[in-house]
Design a protein that fits this description.
The protein is α+β, with helices and mostly antiparallel strands. It contains eleven helices and 20 strands.
């Protein structure tokens, strides 16, 4: 893909064909004698790239339809069918763009502003200026990146058309939410889900916002928290364990991988591998993934808790936290930080800041400043890569 005169252009190569040309060529053909039901597999989407070998997730036509209808209904308080423009900048190889947003746009008949490269913030801002979208779903890194632009800081870009925004794929930090809502005048909510599940929970647009919560279970979705060791005992509100869900939008399984399917799907429940808790009002809080728990001297530390605290420091632009080998503790907490321009900071200053808000064993023992953090193609900070780079340095 190349960019010419402000547009991204793709050329046909090899045996590729343009969809428009195929439609014209076969416009007069008879409808094929093929029966498709809601139970048939409609998509294969790959999952697991941030934690291991990717697996092909089978998503049914029914699941795709359900997700579109669920998110459309959830967004009703702040959206107008047929009128509001939805920005679609997430890639179609990811469940967020292909299923979550595309199906929602179809369900609400929303015009789509398609952005080919979400990392091109010049193009994103140009689209916002030209089309004045009402619905802006993205990831935290894009919201942070836009708010850091000089023309946005100086107030030269008008965001007031945005009635609603959604952050998915990575946690929405409270400070990011506050800043974005101040700039747009609209609402931003977090959403939670997996490739294997589609959307499971969303924050209410007009209801109560609870700091740290990803939201409430979306329509037709049941969420429970069970003990990590056996996965069988349901926990009480406030108790931390593995999050499981039952819903019509769950995957059918992994393509040609019955062992992984049986591990993930048990008696109709999807075992997400995420750790968290439900509160007394049914709000869901995500703490970490089971595999990302840090255990300094036997304690349990969840990376996201540390990341949320460090992100409140005025000099911090981005942060990632993970566990690294340590001779004394077995495993130690380490933070990798990208600082804001012209805002110097030291490792000691970060640790002092954390000591005022965290218990001693949660304070990062190591802090490393970097120009950028490794991320997936949809903007998730790759903690696993940070750990691998730490080990490669012989630390």
């Amino acid at each position: 893909m190349e960019k010419k005169q402000g547009q991204y252009l793709e050329s046909v190569q090899g045996h590729d064909l343009w969809l428009q040309e195929l439609m014209k060529k076969h416009a007069g053909d008879k409808k094929p004698d093929v029966k498709v039901t809601g139970k048939d597999t409609g998509l294969l989407l790959f999952s697991g790239g941030t934690t291991g070998t990717p697996k092909a997730v089978m998503v049914s036509h029914e699941a795709i339809l359900m997700i579109g209808r669920q998110v459309h209904c959830w967004s009703k308080p702040l959206s107008t069918d047929w009128v509001d423009t939805l920005v679609l900048l997430m890639p179609f190889f990811h469940v967020y763009g292909n299923v979550g947003l595309l199906s929602t746009a179809i369900a609400g008949r929303f015009p789509i502003a398609l952005i080919a490269n979400p990392r091109d913030l010049d193009d994103v801002l140009a689209t916002i200026k030209k089309l004045k979208p009402a619905f802006f779903p993205a990831i935290s890194a894009i919201f942070i990146g836009l708010m850091s632009r000089p023309e946005v800081i100086s107030g030269k870009v008008d965001f007031k058309s945005m009635k609603s925004s959604v952050a998915a794929g990575a946690p929405l930090l409270p400070e990011t939410k506050r800043q974005w809502e101040a700039i747009t005048g609209g609402k931003i909510v977090e959403t939670y889900g997996l490739t294997e599940s589609g959307v499971l929970a969303m924050g209410p647009y007009l209801g109560k916002w609870k700091e740290g919560a990803v939201g409430l279970p979306i329509a037709d979705t049941v969420i429970k928290v069970v003990d990590i060791d056996t996965g069988k005992r349901e926990l009480k509100p406030g108790e931390t364990g593995e999050i499981i869900a039952k819903a019509p939008q769950l995957m059918q399984g992994y393509w040609n991988n019955p062992e992984a399917t049986e591990e993930m799907l048990r008696d109709g429940w999807l075992y997400t591998g995420d750790v968290g808790h439900l509160d007394e009002d049914g709000y869901l809080f995500i703490t970490s993934r089971k595999k990302e728990l840090i255990k300094p001297s036997g304690h349990q530390v969840f990376p996201i808790e540390i990341e949320e605290i460090i992100s409140q420091h005025p000099a911090v632009l981005e942060v990632g936290v993970a566990g690294v080998p340590d001779a004394a503790q077995g495993e130690a907490v380490k933070a990798w930080i990208v600082l804001r321009p012209e805002k110097p900071c030291t490792e000691e200053e970060i640790q002092i800041f954390c000591r005022g808000k965290l218990t001693a064993y949660k304070v990062p023992k190591h802090v490393e400043f970097r120009e950028a953090l490794p991320k997936s193609l949809v903007g998730k900070v790759l903690r696993r890569v940070l750990q691998e780079e730490h080990r490669a340095q012989g630390k």
